[in-house]
């Protein structure tokens, strides 16, 4: 690893996409839990 090496930082678009996918994953997990509760109540 040299001092002159560029930082291992993904481009902004990739970071935004990863952030969106992470939020989507959390949303999907919450939706699944909510669906399980609704199905369990019936």
TrEMBL record:
Superkingdom of the organism of origin: Bacteria
UniProt keyword Membrane, yes or no: yes
Keywords: Membrane, Transmembrane, Transmembrane helix
Record flagged with keyword Membrane: yes
Membrane-traversing stretches: 20-41
Name assigned to this protein: Uncharacterized protein
Species this protein is from: Streptomyces coeruleorubidus
